Amino acid sequence: MSEVKEHVETEPVMSGGKPPERPEPPALGLVGWLRWSWRQLTSMKTALVLLFLLALGAVPGSLIPQIPVDPIKVSDFYEANPSLASWYDKFGLFDVYKSVWFSAIYLLLFISLIGCVVPRLQVYLKALRARPPKPPRNLNRLPGHQRFETDASEADVLAAAHQELRKRRFRVETYDGAIGAERGYLREAGNLVFHFSLILTLVGVAWGSLFGYRGTVLVVVGNGFSNAVAQYDDFTPGRSFTPDDLPPFTLTVNSFKATFETQGPQRGAARSFDAGITYQETPESPEKSYDLQVNHPLSIDGTKVHLLGHGYAPKVTVRDGKGDIAFSGPSPFLPQDANFSSFGVVKAPDARPAQLGFEGFFLPTAVIDQRGPVSVFPDAVNPALVLTAYYGRPADETGKPQSVYQLDKTKLTQFDDGKGDKLRFQLAPGQSIDLPDGRGSLTFDSYDQWVKLQISHTPGLNLALAGILLAILGLMGSLFVHPRRTWVRVRTEDGRTVVEVAGLDRGPERGLGDELDAISNILNRKREQA
Amino acid sequence: MNSATLASLSNLLVPTATVIYTLALLAHTVEWSSGLRVRKPAEQKVLVGADGAEIPAGADADGTDEPDRSSRWQQASRIGVLLTVLAFVMHAGGVLTRGLAAGRVPWGNMYEFAITASLAVAAVYLFLLTRQRLEWLGLLVTFVLAATLGIAVLALYVPAADLLPALHSYWLVIHVSAAAVAGGGFTVGGLASILYLIKSRAEAREADGKPMSAALRRVPSSAGMDAVAYKVHAFAFPLWTFGVLVAGPIWAYYAWGRAWGWDPKEVWSLVTWVVYAAYLHARATAGWRGRRAAWVAIAGWVVFLFNFIGVNLLLSGIHAYSGL
Prior knowledge:
The complex is a heterodimer. By secondary structure, chain A is α+β, with helices and mostly antiparallel strands. Chain A is 31% helix and 32% strand. Chain A has 4 domains: 32-123, no CATH class; 134-184 and 485-529, TATA-Binding Protein; 209-310 and 454-472, no CATH class; 313-393 and 405-449, no CATH class. Chain A has helices spanning 2-9, 30-41, 44-58, 60-63, 71-80, 82-90, 100-129, 154-167, 186-211, 461-480, 515-529; strands at 146-150, 171-175, 178-183, 213-220, 224-226, 234-237, 250-260, 270-280, 288-292, 298-300, 303-320, 325-330, 334-335, 342-348, 355-363, 366-369, 372-375, 384-392, 412-414, 424-427, 432-434, 440-457, 484-493, 496-505. In chain A, the strands form 5 sheets. In chain A, strands 4, 6, 10, 11, 12, 21 and 22 form a 7-stranded antiparallel beta sheet that branches. In chain A, strands 13, 14, 15, 18, 19 and 20 form a 6-stranded antiparallel beta sheet that branches. In chain A, a hairpin with a 6-residue loop joins strand 13 and strand 14. The longest helix of chain A is centred in the first third of the chain and has 30 residues, at 100-129. Chain B is mainly alpha-helical. In chain B, helix 1 runs antiparallel to helix 2, helix 2 (72-102) crosses helix 3 and helix 5 (170-207) packs antiparallel against helix 9 (291-314). The interface between A and B is large, with 67 and 64 residues.
């Protein structure tokens, strides 16, 4: 509060002007102590400290891997530094922005903000109704002080000054033989709007994280998706989200086309992604089509569908030792590098007499160099499948969910090539390989592409946006409006009117406008005319 | 002109501008150093001690002395400004032709962002120069410009090319230009704050009876520098707010499906914003005005620079440019 008063009432900011005010020592008793704490929390100095803490507290989240941003990196970190990781985890450093201490900083900051601006609002409303103040006794001590004599009457001088100041959008109050004028009320209004709008933004963000949701799903081209929690690969609901909030739309990915730079130093860089989809907003509504691109999400009833990524899904047919088809279809492989060398697995748990499993890489443009087969371009120019193979006893039905991107090799044996090495084979589309000992075969039929879609709903986003835009408007008012006071005083000495003008800039710019010169010029001109 | 001609024209203009900024830097160095020696001759109006070495303390506490117009440092200063204007014209031409060559806004990779952001610094400085005396900033500004362009040309250069799909958006124009111009303001403001600290320290020492160097005597009072620093920051801060807290999230929402995802670049943009918010608060807080606030402004500039350079080089994130 003391700071508030100071900001509103004092003279222009001078470096090292007033000595810092010492906080009062805590009074006895709980109420006194609480009041003291509240005053401390809402002081400008505390706000400043909290701002620094907020800046400092945000930093670790950019240096340490974050669970919501990149969970794989976090588990890598755990493996590399287990003891450090457990310490980090104790302090919430893997999820800084949801940690208790980070939340505490920004919540305290907002409480401090509210505690600061609410009293300021009252002060401001009072100031709005107040009359521009009387001139101080010694105008000559103020900046821009001017004194001159004129033949015009006191009343004429004051009237002319009044008119000029009104023209310059001053609020003018006439006193006995003097004028007090003030302008720039919007500065403090802007300041208050800025701070209240930040609260609005926080509410919008909080609303979105409570009631919103975000999920991703990998869809192989030609397949569909219907919006239910079970269909997602990965789903993050807000705390107050219920599955009923999901709009019942369905969509089908019909095509996908990616283009890449084919020459120059940026060869292989992506140039466009294009997914052709059809969708129905509800099971009863008509089918519509949409061209889904990066920067061009689909909006269904407030829910956004974004195209986040893409990759390849080799289509293979696995026959078992009995000659029956044990698996047939696309298996999504996950890109590991910029040229889409993609890792994945093909599982045939139903193969008999032994179950079969395959693991390896899909290479869209395969070449063989000293590292072995690698992909040198992201587009499928010369696709190849490089796999190793496993067999084992038929698995027991455990009902335990298994990753479709990993092969559980604990009970499997790797095939060898009969010469003591592990069996490894490379296939072009259309090619097949027979597994040793008549255990079956694998055919690389062709490949499909898949797209990774994000489906999300973030209510409150518009509120947060409106808050920030309002905040900027307020900020501009608080930074660019110059609050100023101007005084004119007249008295008669030896039959001539002595005029004194002076002003006070109440913002941090420390510059006076030209209104003082304008007033004296006008009055001087009047004198000349007279 | 086809795009290859434009690209090679740009590749000619940008290094030329670098060289001319360096010449301007030399001129400003002469401006600053000349006063160190030119004090002795009797032509100076400033009082000189009997032995010709001591300058009496407090002779010109506010640095408003105006020695005759033809003095050497003033010529050097004028030459420095003229060279800066010339370099700016070439620099602007280089950025423009680069954009025309690539057929898009010239800030799709780090080289382009460096030449565009430094153009913003030069523009902010020259614009302010038309409105008030600001040659005293020339030394630091030309140093920053020459260094940035030099690094861009020597270390960051990549040939003009098309953009990644995520960058195909008009928000690229809005988001990055707002951030770049605000960055230009932060840079000029940070440099003014550095000089403010130097000058106010010299003023304090002078009050204790220690002499102030001639070069520092010539530049405006620390109060005047502080006012300039504040004005530039007051211009840059709302623009930064718009660039990184409005335009950025809107574009991120379209391109990546979330408005704010705590990507390292986003984190450091917010840290930058918070530090400058602290600067504005510091200016209104007793005990923080003046030198402490100036330190906060400089901290903000360092954070901004780290966000612009360090985050891309040291931390991984999705704000990666094509070709660095």
